[in-house]
Every structure is written in structure tokens, then in C-alpha cells.
Design a protein that fits this description.
about 375 residues; globular; mainly alpha
Length: about 375
């Protein structure tokens, strides 16, 4: 259990620092806004490239994949600070995305294995610690930037901390690691249950990343909020998500995962609708916080359900399939909101996000039934 929590905290440490140091990376690399946008797409492409293959590696080699993936991820996290051109930055971000995707799969496979071994819910807590780590690292990096630190000292420091965590807590001998499994005979099929889990997880990620990416813009351009208030929206969303995940982990001792999906989707829909139609920034900020509370539990719960459904023989492969499908939603969410806002308006596009949350709530019982029908 400690392995999982430490790994998710280290993962969040990097991404919190990355979001805060990105302006320095842009300035030091000398790229334009358009070039930076193109380079950032490489993160997603790299992740999609590595996720399924990582599931195979975990099934083949077991728990050793996690510390290796974490160290490679930390190493590639320094590369953007060394890039001197748009092409070099794009290559660095592709490698960062590939190792990030591998780390994501390995962490979720390790977490669901720990749940199976202990019989206790863990994934919402682990994802909650990720969110807390993102907030803490973001604030810490902001303080370092105010003191004059550049991209290389910040990302280099993050590298050192993550490698230390990998060496001390994620090593194969630290307990609870995944054992290699016998190679399955025959061709692997894409089970209907995995499509259900992955599809719902993708919808949850669309909602989550839509608000994470567009909440500040909504407050600023739609509602005319002061810059400081508008800029606080992503942090409010992240803090609410951390709170929701930690609370959701406790709720799973009282309710079934499918029931938590229904509650989470319903709360998300209510908060998203409130934020979309709000007439003043403070009311919208409240809706954003409610949306963060609700959507926070959906993806971790679905990943946990995937691990329980798959069993030890194919857990890593199932997790890699679901997270790959889900990641498509994470990538497409902000772009879809932008496209719909250009056709209609930003509030209307964000209102559509509330509809997606309703879909998650309605189909929560379907995921529960799919999880109950484990195939052999």
C-alpha cells in the first residue's frame, strides 16, 4: 500500500512542478505559443504509444517495471529544460509522455493489486494524494520561480526527489510488488467489460480535464473575473478533487463502487451545470468546486473495478487497455470544449460537460454489472 501511495505522490510532484515551470521552459527554449502547443501534443502521443505495451511488460516481468518506469520518467522530466529548439522540445516531450504513460499504467496496476491483496479500497486515496502533490508542487515551484529559479534547477530537483522515492519505497524488495504471470495462450480479446470501464473513464476524464483547462478562461472571459480570482479556478478544482478522492475512498467502505459512480456523476453534473450558467464568478467557482468533488471519484473507482474484474492473471493488461481508452478522453476533452465554444459559446460547451456527467451517472450500474461478470 505504501508503494502505491508513494508512487502516486511522486507522479503528482512532477506534474505539479511541470505546470508551474512551463512558462520558464517556453521562455528558455524560445518557442512560440503555436510551437509550444504542437510540442505539448507529443506528451499525449507518447503516452498512447507506451500504455498498452507497459501492460504486457508488467505481465511478463512483474513489479520491477514500476521502479524502472518511475526512474525513466524522472529522467525524461529533465529533458525539456535542456531543449534548445521546438523540434528538440517536441522530442523531449514525446519521451516524457511515453514514460509518463508507462508510469501511469504501472502505478494503477500496483494499486489495484494492493487492493486485491488487502481487501481494502485504495485507488481513490492514491489519486487524492496525486492531486494534493500537484497542488503542493505547483505552489512550491511558484515560490522557487519568484526567487529566480529556472527550469533546469526545478526539474533537476524534482528528478532527485523522485529517484530517491523510487529507490527507497518502490524497489522490488519493498513489499507488495506484482508477480509475473504465466503467458496466456491464444489471442487476447478486447472484452466488452473493458470497453465499458474504458468508455466511462474516458467520459470522466473529458469532464475533469475540461474544467481543469477551461475554468480560468470561463471566469475570465465569460464572467469578467479579476485575474487573480480567475487564475485560482484550476487550484480550487484540484483541491476539491483531492478532497473528493480521499472522502470517496472512505465511502467505498459503505457503498458499492457502482453506487459511488452514480453519486459522483450526479454531483459532477450539478456542479458543472451551476458553473456553466452562473451569473457571477463566485457562484461559478462554487460550481467548479462541486464538479471537482464529484468527478474526482469516477476514474479511480473505474480503474479499481477494472483490477477487481481482471484478476491477477490479466490485471496489468486490463488496466493498460482501460487507461489507454480513458486517456483519449483526457486528451480530447479540452479540444472538444474549444471546438464547441467556437460553434456556440463557452458556457454552452461547458454545459455539455454536465450532460456527459449525467451519462456517467446513468451508466454506473452498467459498469457494476459488467464488473460482476468476470470471464475466465
Amino acid at each position: 500500500m505504501l508503494k502505491t501511495l508513494a508512487g502516486f505522490s511522486a507522479f503528482g510532484l512532477f506534474w505539479g512542478a511541470w505546470g508551474a515551470i512551463l512558462p520558464a521552459v517556453k521562455a528558455e527554449t524560445g518557442v512560440s505559443d503555436a510551437q509550444l502547443g504542437g510540442a505539448l501534443l507529443m506528451v499525449g502521443l507518447g503516452a498512447l504509444f507506451s500504455m498498452r505495451f507497459t501492460g504486457y511488460l508488467i505481465d511478463r516481468y512483474g513489479g520491477i517495471v514500476l521502479p524502472v518506469a518511475v526512474v525513466l520518467f524522472a529522467t525524461c522530466g529533465v529533458l525539456p529544460a535542456l531543449a534548445g529548439s521546438a523540434v528538440a522540445l517536441g522530442g523531449a516531450l514525446f519521451l516524457l509522455g511515453a514514460t509518463s504513460g508507462a508510469t501511469d499504467v504501472a502505478l494503477n496496476a500496483t494499486g489495484t493489486t494492493a487492493e486485491a491483496d488487502t481487501g481494502k479500497p485504495l485507488m481513490n486515496l492514491a489519486h487524492g494524494l496525486f492531486s494534493l502533490s500537484v497542488v503542493a508542487a505547483s505552489l512550491g515551484t511558484a515560490a522557487l520561480r519568484a526567487a529566480g529559479a529556472g527550469a533546469l534547477p526545478v526539474l533537476g530537483g524534482v528528478f532527485v526527489v523522485i529517484v530517491l522515492i523510487a529507490a527507497v519505497l518502490l524497489a522490488p524488495g519493498s513489499g507488495g510488488h506484482i508477480r509475473p504471470v504465466a503467458k496466456e495462450k491464444g489471442k487476447r480479446r478486447l472484452e466488452p467489460a473493458l470497453l465499458v470501464f474504458g468508455g466511462l473513464c474516458a467520459l470522466a476524464y473529458v469532464v475533469e480535464n475540461a474544467w481543469q483547462s477551461w475554468s480560468a478562461v470561463h471566469l475570465d472571459t465569460t464572467l469578467g473575473a479579476a485575474p487573480a480570482l480567475a487564475s485560482s479556478a484550476p487550484a480550487v478544482f484540484a483541491a476539491a478533487a483531492a478532497t473528493g478522492r480521499i472522502s470517496g475512498n472512505a465511502l467505498l467502505r459503505l457503498v458499492k463502487p457502482a453506487q459511488l459512480l452514480v453519486v459522483g456523476g450526479s454531483v459532477t453534473a450539478a456542479g458543472s451545470a451551476l458553473a456553466a450558467v452562473a451569473g457571477n464568478p463566485w457562484l461559478a467557482l462554487g460550481g467548479i468546486a462541486i464538479a471537482g468533488l464529484g468527478t474526482s471519484v469516477c476514474a479511480p473507482t473505474l480503474i479499481s473495478m477494472t483490477g477487481a474484474w481482471a484478476g491477477p492473471e490479466r490485471r496489468a493488461g486490463a488496466i493498460s487497455t482501460v487507461t489507454t481508452i480513458a486517456y483519449l478522453g483526457f486528451l480530447l476533452g479540452p479540444a472538444a470544449v474549444g471546438a464547441f465554444s467556437s460553434i456556440w459559446s463557452l458556457p454552452t460547451a461547458l454545459g455539455c460537460v454536465a450532460v456527459l456527467a449525467v451519462v456517467v451517472a446513468v451508466l454506473g450500474p452498467v459498469a457494476g454489472r459488467a464488473g460482476a461478470r468476470q470471464t475466465t
